Amino acid sequence: MSLIWLLGLVLAIAAVGYALGRTRALSSTNGDIRKLHSLPSYYGANVALKSAIPALLVLVVWLVAQPLIVSGVVSSDIPDSAIPEGSSRGLVMSEVKRVAAGLDGAVAAGTMSASYAASAQADMDDVTKRMRDAQQITPEALTPEILTAGQRFRAMVAQGKWAMTAVVLALAVAGAFWGLRESHAEFRARNTVERVTKVLLIAAASLAILTTVGIVLSLVFNTYEFFTMYPPLEFFFGTTWAPSFSGRGGSSELGIVPLLWGTFYISIVALAVAVPIGLFSAIYLSEYAGPKVRAIAKPLLEVLAGIPTIVYGLFALLTVGPLLVSIFGKDGFGWMQSGTAVMTAGIVMGIMLIPFVSSLSDDIINAVPQSLRDGSYGLGATKSETIKQVVLPAALPGIVGAILLAASRAIGETMIVVLGAGAAARLSLNPFEAMTTVTAKIVSQLTGDTDFSSPEMLVAFALGMTLFVVTLGLNIFALYIVRKYREQYE
Amino acid sequence: MYDARHTEAQVDQTETKISAKGVQVYYGDTHAIKDVDVEIADKTVTAFIGPSGCGKSTFLRCLNRMNDTIDICRVQGDILIDGEDIYDRRVDPVQLRAKVGMVFQKPNPFPKSIYDNIAYGPRIHGLAKNKADLDVIVEKSLRRGAIWNEVKDRLHAPGTGLSGGQQQRLCIARAIATEPEVLLMDEPCSALDPIATAQVEELIDELRLDYSVVIVTHSMQQAARVSQKTAFFHLGNLVEFDDTTKIFTNPEDPRTESYITGRIG
């Protein structure tokens, strides 16, 4: 029975349980709703939840656990003699799984009977040929040990599936009966359903948090592994970034300083573009613009936030880069060699951040109480004096928070950097030179042939971890400032 | 016309500071103030009373053109201060508001230090030549606002950290720091406790020596205590305007009598 069917069946049992629970509760008071503790639908929902939730929970756990257990058992049964020289148990296990999948495919395609697939021992070439006829991937040399293990694997998976179906269905039915037994007038079905709702919501929230924790942990462990291979001091203070891919380890220099410098330099250029423009447009929109202008201009500005960053990257590569070269390049000032430079990426990233700064600042400026503006006008201040001396100082903490949020976005940005700033890790003050950032280097370290045991690969995790700590710090700082700001009025 | 006003002024022994004629105010389609004529004397406290929504605050805000900041508000008629039409095109509302100060219903200190709150007006109008000058103005204003003794040791603490009554006196001190000629107060005591209210009322009484004070209030007792002239507004009309003692003891209009005895409003 396939998974979809099983799922459908459980839900069908729950639905039937719902209808039965409802009716049973109603009949327990001879149809008088007012004598029931809860509305009839709550009794139905109680039955449905009790049949579906435990069954589905077991289903999920089973689906996760079964492959682990089965491969554990099968792999421990493979004799050491079956593992060839220079190979490992893990590699043999993947062969076994491939054979099992091949047998499945051959049976499905009809080149093999089910009993043949389960018991064939003698002729390896015949088995291989039949699997090939069914367009399956086959190992180069099928050994009897691998075939036996593959057959065992298939058998266990099939058994597990049957057991899972039986257990899940039994649980669903048992849950439905449990719920039905409770469906009488005194039972507080509403409170039970309410509690289950709460638990479901908590489960959703904790799933999100657990995922975050999982991501952080995977970063931490891989970073730790990296630091067992590469000295942390050289990583954090090394000023050269020169990973080597040919000779494994040793000859690589993996200093984060040039990457961090590139990240901060590009982010600073981006903020230098985004903060004044974003802030001024926010002031215009919130203080000067009439309702009509505002209704058109604000959504238009926010369209910028909806453009995918890769499109910004193209814009940098095709428009801004050549434009800057024509001004600052050989024919102009002569400072710029090619279109990919800190300036190119910084300016385009700044454009991307404008709606961030303006939209958040606009909200914050609007939150400044009108009474403060009135107070200032009442003293004979002009509009710009009021904005400069009362509105902006009052909104400043919030605006700083908005800028910090924009900064943490700039630091994490990748696509624009890859296309706009180039890939050269360099420590330089010239903003017209190509540089690169932490994120762009993570991408280039992980693309291509990946072998997660060399420091050149694992450095990506250390870079990611560093970046994570930096942006987390910025975000916490921003939140702290925004929260402090909130307490200022009332 | 001129003669009539002159005679009245002589009777009161004071000059007319503000003179409003046929003032109409519209908020969009709503006719908020209907044909109001009023003469406000110098060095006098004038109280505006009336039920909520009767237009007294709106009329007060016309006197320093604060209604300009509301897009849908239109003002018609003449309002003269010292004989000059404040709605004339040549008049800069910003300058006008330096001359006609305002204190609001809710204390609204700027999120700055006490010192900077007071120094705000003098700074933007360039009233002080140097720091010492400004110090003098700040101290004088705070003394006149009857709050100097409470804040003299913490002039650089934030103004928002004061209590409600102190904040309101700070706002009054801030308003008089620009040396206005007229002080408009929109229910200045509605958010204050009785003790703070008494302090502010005492202050208003002292301010009368130098300024023309116009106060909007919901408290009839307050109007009777602090004002010399009282105007009663009802549904956008100025119903009666006379000496405070006359309004409260012997009103001419039956609506005024109903209001001060608590039957309407």
TrEMBL record, chain A:
GO terms for cellular component: plasma membrane. This is Phosphate transport system permease protein. The keyword Transmembrane applies. Keywords: Cell inner membrane, Cell membrane, Membrane, Phosphate transport, Transmembrane, Transmembrane helix, Transport. Its main location: membrane. It is found in: Cell inner membrane; Cell membrane. It is a multi-pass membrane protein. Part of the binding-protein-dependent transport system for phosphate; probably responsible for the translocation of the substrate across the membrane. The chain crosses the membrane at residues 43-65, 162-180, 200-220, 264-285, 306-329, 335-357, 390-411, 458-482. CDD domains: TM_PBP2 (cd06261). Belongs to the binding-protein-dependent transport system permease family. CysTW subfamily. InterPro entries: MetI-like (IPR000515), MetI-like_sf (IPR035906), Phosphate_PstC (IPR011864), PstC_N (IPR022182). It comes from Tropicibacter naphthalenivorans. Residues 260-478 form the ABC transmembrane type-1 domain. GO terms for biological process: phosphate ion transport. One of its GO terms (molecular function) is phosphate transmembrane transporter activity. Pfam families: BPD_transp_1, DUF3708.
UniProtKB/TrEMBL annotation, chain B:
The keyword Aminoacyl-tRNA synthetase does not apply. The keyword DNA-binding does not apply. Keywords: ATP-binding, Cell membrane, Hydrolase, Membrane, Nucleotide-binding, Phosphate transport, Translocase, Transport. One of its GO terms (cellular component) is plasma membrane. It is found in: Cell inner membrane. Residues 18-260 form the ABC transporter domain. SUPFAM superfamilies: P-loop containing nucleoside triphosphate hydrolases. CDD domains: ABC_PstB_phosphate_transporter (cd03260). GO terms for molecular function: ATP binding; ATP hydrolysis activity; phosphate transmembrane transporter activity. It holds the Pfam family ABC_tran. Coiled coil: none annotated. Its main location: membrane. GO terms for biological process: phosphate ion transmembrane transport. Its EC number is 3.6.3.27. It is a peripheral membrane protein. It is an enzyme of class 3 (hydrolase). It comes from the Bacteria. Part of the ABC transporter complex PstSACB involved in phosphate import. Responsible for energy coupling to the transport system. This is Phosphate import ATP-binding protein PstB. It comes from Tropicibacter naphthalenivorans.
